[in-house]
């Protein structure tokens, strides 16, 4: 832990600040925090620490001893990038669009499967990772505090919904393709964005909800039995999915070229979320009724 002084970041308010490194997390997650963001050593805060550690592990797996310092680790595979045309990548992204994954076996499933299949086949696993912007990392932490500590909820249905945000991003890509000289083509965009919606719909009830939200989820299922969750929930829960995506995508057994394309899109999508932060994320969470709190604690 380092103490901030005048030589530190200029955008910090005056007063004591600490450069905090989260144990087990990469340096990209380091933050300058003031006293209000430093938590006491309590049982409740240990639970929070456990969540944050799991989130970091999901998105930033440790490098293998034989891997090279590239953004995507590719043990056992040549590091030649962009082999073949980008149009040939789209069919290989079908596994993403199908979203045919087992979310109920937990985040370790991909690594366990690799071990079960033998050392030779496991060596072909390509590690998938991308960087979440710092502003969105803070959103994740605040979201955790609002729901688990302050017992607040996001009002549902949200506006815009996950589907609407993804559709708006697709329009954004098409409108800015020529201006940005982007190589993203329409076919690949459709494959990835459809897959992102499918991932969200399947992952929400299995791994994206905190315990306090589960009763709200049950209520939503009763009120909207024929509606996809991507048409109910919004950016707050979509952002949680990105913490889990590296482990989920690993299950899809995609090749290196497809993963590079997917990483490019997801990284750009996160920048789009950051750019539209005030429009996509709620400013205030709602206080549920006493009856809700009573039932939610019993689940």
UniProtKB/TrEMBL annotation:
The residue ranges of the MSL3 chromodomain-like domain are 11-53
Using the UniProt annotation, give all residue ranges assigned to the region (Disordered): 57-91
Give the UniProt entry's GO cellular component terms. NuA4 histone acetyltransferase complex; Rpd3S complex
Q: Where is the composition biased (Low complexity)?
A: 65-75
Q: Which UniProt keywords apply?
A: Chromatin regulator, Nucleus, Transcription, Transcription regulation
Its protein name is Chromatin modification-related protein EAF3
Main site of residence? nucleus
Which InterPro entries does this entry report, sorted A to Z?
Chromo-like_dom_sf, MRG, MRG_C_sf, MRG_dom, MSL3_chromo-like
Gene3D superfamilies attached to this UniProt entry: 2.30.30.140, MRG domain
| Cellular location(s) | Nucleus
Provenance organism = Smittium mucronatum
GO biological-process terms attached to the record: chromatin organization; regulation of DNA-templated transcription
| Residue intervals of the MRG domain | 108-286
Q: Family assignment?
A: Belongs to the MRG family.
Q: Where is the composition biased (Polar residues)?
A: 76-89
Q: Mention any Pfam family matching this sequence.
A: MRG
């Amino acid at each position: 832990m380092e103490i901030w002084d005048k030589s530190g970041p200029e955008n910090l308010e005056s007063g004591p600040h600490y450069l905090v490194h989260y144990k087990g997390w990469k340096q990209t997650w380091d933050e300058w925090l003031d006293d209000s963001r430093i938590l006491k050593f309590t049982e409740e805060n240990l639970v929070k620490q456990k969540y944050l550690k799991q989130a970091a592990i999901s998105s930033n797996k440790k490098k293998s001893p034989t891997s090279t310092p590239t953004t995507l680790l590719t043990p056992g595979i040549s590091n030649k990038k962009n082999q073949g045309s980008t149009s040939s990548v789209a069919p290989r992204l079908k596994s993403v669009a199908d979203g045919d994954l087992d979310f109920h076996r937990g985040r370790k499933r991909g690594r366990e499967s690799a071990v079960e299949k033998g050392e030779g086949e496991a060596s072909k696993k390509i590690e998938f990772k991308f960087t979440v912007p710092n502003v969105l990392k803070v959103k994740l932490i605040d979201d955790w505090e609002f729901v688990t500590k302050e017992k607040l909820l996001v009002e549902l249905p949200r506006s815009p919904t996950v589907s609407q945000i993804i559709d708006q991003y697709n329009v954004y890509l098409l409108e800015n393709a020529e201006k940005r000289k982007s190589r993203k083509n329409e076919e690949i965009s459709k494959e990835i964005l459809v897959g992102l919606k499918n991932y969200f719909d399947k992952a929400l009830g299995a791994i994206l909800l905190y315990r306090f939200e589960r009763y709200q989820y049950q209520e939503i299922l009763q009120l909207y039995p024929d509606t996809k969750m991507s048409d109910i929930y919004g950016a707050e829960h979509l952002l949680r999915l990105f913490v889990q995506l590296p482990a989920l995508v690993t299950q899809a057994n995609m090749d290196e070229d497809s993963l590079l394309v997917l990483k490019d899109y997801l990284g750009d999508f996160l920048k789009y979320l950051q750019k539209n932060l005030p429009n996509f994320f709620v400013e205030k969470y709602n206080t549920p009724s006493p009856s809700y709190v009573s039932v939610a604690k019993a689940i």
